[in-house]
Every structure is written in structure tokens, then in C-alpha cells.
Design a protein that fits this description.
The protein has about 300 residues and is mainly α. The protein contains eleven helices and two strands. Strands 1-2 form a two-stranded antiparallel ribbon. The longest helix has about 30 residues. The termini are far apart.
């Protein structure tokens, strides 16, 4: 029997999710334009990357396509891939911290930037071991059949599921992208291994979905047929999609890091000056490129 979040509930959540994404985009653009007006240039491609990441989040959680996740496991898998694998690196490549804080009211931005507990909390969450483990736990836990069914039966749990996928994705990609103000404390070789080992739980799960001879999630028994899929065919398609997408994305990231590891460091780095004052913070020079990994030295 197919599960339903509820049309009215889904419509309501889509509205406020869309509004939240739009507000985030407006705050970022406001801060980005303010930085340019103060002769502090955050590259256009970074703004485009951040907005592209927000767009993928919208597709995953609030677009008409998102409503099909109750009927096709493949669509449900697309949501997970957008939230964990594709949107987070684009968000981090947008160097979001400085534009977002500049886009917020000055007093609020000052409180955020000077908050020592928030800085310590952010530092603790940036540990690669924790980020890797969090992503693996979220991925595996939500694909356990009873937990999966819980997320599909309740609108609240469904939104929570999507939120945990996005947060886990942001955590996972932070050590790889190392966005400002992150400081690289790990050699690039360890990040390459980090990416390699992250493929293992994805490979195990996707391989299980592809080669299993029974339907793992019975909720799709009666919902896939109208789209020309059998429930088992839908499951195999979802597993193959996950396997292919994760492999390609991690391979591209690993290749970029390997090329950087083997190539000599550039003698010049682009720089970005902070505003003279961000709520009283003393100006300092920070890398324009995003951290020390994927985009450093562009």
C-alpha cells in the first residue's frame, strides 16, 4: 500500500521551504553585493555556485518533482543525492560565510563572528573523522526499512530526514572543500583516502539494492507500475543511480586533489580583504579561494 505524506501538508512544507531558500539566497546576494561595493571582490562564479546549490536543494525538497518520491524509489534516491552529494559542495564553493554574514544585520553578524562557543562548535564539527562517520550513519540509518517507512509515513519525519541528509552532506564536504574560514590541518593525501573510504558504504548499499532479488521497501509495490517500472526494477534503477553518481562525483573530487598534490604550488594566491569592520572585527587578509582543497589556488 503506498504511503502518503498528505497533499496539504506537503504543499504547506513546500511553501515554507521555498521561502527559506529564497531568503537565504537574498541574504547571500545582499552580502555579496555589499562586499563588491566595498571593493572586496568575491568571484562571480562563487555566487553562481552557491545559488546553484540552493537551486538543487529546492529541486530536492520543494519542487513538483519532489512529490514523486512517494511513488518512485528512484526519485527518492535523486533527492538524497542532491542533498548529500551535489548541493553541499556547490554551497561550500560559494564561500558562504563572508557573504551571508555581510547580508545579515550588522549587530547580528557581529555576534556570530565574535561568538567563541559557536567557533568552538564549528571547529569540533569540522573534524574529518566525525564528518565521515556522520555521513555514513545518516546514509545507512535512513535506508533501514523500518526507518525508511517512518520517514515516508510522516510529513514531520520526512522533512527531518531531508534535513539530516543536507546537514550530513555539508559536514562531509567541509573537510574536502575547506571553505573560509576553515584552516587546512590535514594533508591532501588523507582527504583523498577520506573520499575513497566514503564510497564503501555507498557501494555496499547501492550494490545491495541493485542485486537484491526482492523488493526491500514494500511501500513501492503498487506505486511504481503506472510509470512503467516494476517495484524491483525501480529499486535496481535507484541503486544503480546512486552507485554511478557517487562514484563519479567522488572520483572527480579525488582526481582534482591528486592533481593538486602532484603539481607544484603556485607562488601567488588570490586574496580577499575583509571589510574594514564587520561589526567591529579587525580587518585581516583571507584566501579568496575556497580553503586548501578543491578550489584553492584558482
Amino acid at each position: 500500500m503506498p504511503l502518503h505524506h498528505g497533499t496539504m501538508g506537503s504543499s504547506g512544507s513546500s511553501v515554507w521551504l521555498t521561502a527559506s531558500i529564497l531568503i537565504t539566497a537574498v541574504v547571500y546576494l545582499r552580502g555579496w553585493l555589499h562586499l563588491r561595493l566595498t571593493m572586496i571582490v568575491v568571484a562571480f562564479w562563487r555566487a553562481a555556485s552557491f545559488l546553484a546549490g540552493l537551486s538543487l536543494i529546492w529541486v530536492a525538497v520543494a519542487s513538483p518533482v519532489a512529490t514523486l518520491d512517494e511513488q518512485l524509489l528512484t526519485v527518492h534516491m535523486i533527492q538524497h543525492l542532491l542533498l548529500m552529494t551535489l548541493a553541499p559542495p556547490l554551497i561550500w564553493l560559494g564561500a558562504p560565510v563572508l557573504p551571508l554574514t555581510q547580508g545579515l544585520p550588522r549587530q547580528f553578524a557581529r555576534s556570530l563572528l565574535k561568538s567563541l562557543p559557536l567557533q568552538r562548535f564549528g571547529k569540533a564539527l569540522s573534524q574529518p573523522a566525525f564528518c565521515w562517520l556522520a555521513a555514513c550513519v545518516v546514509l545507512i540509518a535512513w535506508h533501514i526499512p523500518p526507518v525508511f517507512a517512518l520517514g515516508m509515513q510522516s510529513e514531520v519525519w520526512h522533512v527531518f530526514e531531508q534535513a539530516t541528509f543536507l546537514v550530513a552532506g555539508l559536514l562531509f564536504w567541509r573537510p574536502v572543500i575547506q571553505p573560509w574560514p576553515s584552516v587546512s590541518r590535514w594533508p591532501e593525501l588523507s582527504i583523498i583516502l577520506y573520499l575513497f573510504f566514503a564510497t564503501l558504504p555507498c557501494d555496499i548499499l547501492s550494490g545491495f539494492l541493485v542485486f537484491c532479488d526482492r523488493v526491500v521497501y514494500p511501500i513501492y509495490f503498487s506505486s511504481s507500475t503506472p510509470f512503467g517500472f516494476s517495484a524491483l526494477g525501480d529499486q535496481q534503477c535507484a541503486g544503480a543511480l546512486m552507485w554511478t553518481c557517487v562514484t563519479i562525483v567522488y572520483l572527480v573530487a579525488g582526481t582534482i586533489l591528486t592533481m593538486r598534490l602532484l603539481s607544484p604550488r603556485g607562488s601567488r594566491e588570490d586574496t580577499l580583504m575583509e571589510p574594514e569592520r564587520i561589526g567591529g572585527v579587525v580587518p585581516q587578509r583571507v584566501p579568496q579561494s575556497v580553503g586548501g582543497s578543491l578550489s584553492h589556488g584558482r
